[in-house]
Amino acid sequence: MRKTAADPKGVLSGAHFLDGDHAIAEGALAAGCRFFAGYPITPSTETAERFAERCPGVGGLFIQMEDEIASIAALVGAAWGGQKVMTVTSGPGLSLMMENLGLAVMTETPMVIADVQRAGPSTGLPTLPGQQDMMQVRWGSHGDYRIIALSPDSPQECFDLTVEAFNLSETYRVPVFIMTDETVGHMHEKVVIPPAEEIMVVARNLYDGPKEDYRPYRFTGKDVAPMVRAGDGYRFHITGLTHDERGYPALTPAQNVKVVTHLIEKIDSNADKIIRLEEEEVEGAEVLVVSYGITSRIVSRAVQLAREAGIRTGTLRLITVWPFAERRIRELAGQVRAIVVPEINYGQMVREVERCAAGQCRVVSVPHCGGAVHDPDVILGAIQEACQ
Amino acid sequence: MTWEVRFSGFGGQGIVRCALITGKALSMYDNKFATMTQSFGPEARGGACASQLVISESRVLYPYVTLPGVLVALSQDSYNTYEPKLRDGGVLIYEEDLVQPKEDTGRVQMYAAPVTRMAEEIGNRIFANLVTLGCFAAITKIVSAEAMKNALPGLVPDRFLAVNEKAFDRGYEYGLELLETRPLSIEEAP
Predict the structure, then answer these.
(1) Model confidence at A108, in pLDDT bands (50, 70, 90)?
(2) What distance in Å separates residue B32's CA from the closest CA in chain A?
(3) Which residue among A144, A168, A310, A328 is least enclosed by CB atoms within 10 Å?
(4) DSSP string covering A159-207, please?
(5) Does domain B3-181 have CATH number 3.40.50.150?
(6) Where residue A331 sits, what CATH number does that domain have?
C-alpha cells in the first residue's frame, strides 16, 4: 500500500486541549476523510459536530442522516464514490448499523466507525461509560466475517488510532472500528497533532489499467483488489449477494467458499501486522492484567498498588482488540499463574482470553455493569486473589 | 506534586467550562499535564454538574479525582454532595449567596465569594464562572493568571473576550483580598 504525507489542509498541527470525540474528528480529517454521515447520539455527538464545523474549510461533506441505518448506507455509497468515509455512534445506533455493516463487509468497502460506548442494554445510561459493545462489533451482523477494532485510552490516542484506522481500512478494504467510551470521549487532555508531513496516510488504491479488465474483487485471502470511483466510466457491480470477481451475483456454495474464506483470511493472515499491544513488566510476572480502553488507565492505579504489595504484576493493553491477540495471550498464559481481565461489561473479551489461555493458567473476570469505571481496589482485590 | 480539583454547581453555571479553561491553561501554557473529566445528567440546564481536573508534572495515568484538595461549589446541592469528599486541610471556595455552609470547624480552608453578584455588577451573571476562576487562581496558585487568560480565546465567544477577562481580573483581585484575611496553608496534596 502506498503511504503518503497527509494533506495539510485537513491537519490542525499543534498542541490542543481536546476531548476524545473531538480528537477522533481531527484524526479523520488528518487521514483524508472528507465524507461523514451520521445521526447524533450521546456520547458521540461532539465528533459529528466538530467534523461538520471543519468541513467547509477542508472541502468535506457532512450529512446529518435520518438515522444510523441510512448513515452507514451513505458511507458505502460515498466510499465507492472515491471518498474516505466515517461515522460515529453509540450502542443504540450501532445496533441499527448492523445490517449495513454486513453490506460493507461483503462489498469490502473501507470505512471507519467510531463507537463511543455508553452503558446498555437499549438506551441504558446515555451519559455514562460502558465497554459492552465489544462482541457486538465482532459478531453483530449475520454471516461469517472479520472486522478490525482499535481501542484508544486517551484523547491523544483517539487522534493517532483514527489515522491508523483509516490506513487499515484502506489496506484491507474492511470496516474498522474505534472502540472508545464515554469517559475517553468526553475526557479532555493535551493532544499534539504533528505536522502534516509527519502523518503518513494510506491513499485509496485506485485502479488505472484498461477499463475492460477492471475487477473490483480478488479472492486471495491475502490482499484486496484496487477500487475505482463510480462515475469514472468503469463497468462494475456491487452487491450484498455472493459475487464473482466482477461483483456480479454468483449464487453457488462454491463461490461462497471463495468469498467468505477471503473475507476471513485477508484479516487472519495479516493479524500479526495489524495487532498492536502495549506490554509492561510481563517478564517474570505472576499475574498478568489484560485490559483495553479507559479500563487500562484504571488498571494502572490497581497495578501500582499490587506491586507495592509485592505482587509481580504485568500488564497487557489491547490497542487492537480485533483481530484478537491470540498468539501472544497463549504464550503469556504459559508463563503466569493467572490472567485478570477487568472490563466495563459482564465479561466479554475475557472469553477470548480464556479460549487462548486454554487452561494453562487461571483466568479471572472482573466484570462491571457499566455507568462508571472500576474502583481500582476491586481490580487490586482480584489480582491478590488470583495469585493465591 | 499532583493536584485534584473539583468544580461543582448546577448545569448552566459554566462548571464544565471552568475545568476546560483551567485544564487548557495548565497543559498548554503552564507546562503541566492535566486531565479533565466531567459528570452531568441528560438535562441541558439545572441538573447537578461537576467537572474534575487531575493536574501533575508528569503524564496523568489514573484520570479521576479520588480525594480532591480543592473544591469549588456554586450551589447548595453541590456543596452538600462534595464537601464531605474534600480532603482534610483542603481548599473550599463557595458561592457566598447560594451556599449556606456548615459551621466552620477548621477541617477545610473556607473562602466565600459572591461570584454571581460580582458578575452581575460586571454586566451579566453568565460571567460568574470567570469570576470564580479568578478567585480560584488567586487563592490556590495552581495556575497562573497569564495562562488562564491565554486559554480564553476559543473557549469564550470572541465578542465577550474582554468582559470575560474583566470578570477573571475582578475575581482574582477578590481572591487576593480573601487571602489577606485568611492566608492559605498549602500542604503536599495526596
Answers:
(1) very high
(2) 10
(3) A310
(4) HHHHHHHHHHHHHHTSEEEEEEEHHHHH-EEEEEEPPGGG-EEEPP-B-
(5) no
(6) 3.40.50.920
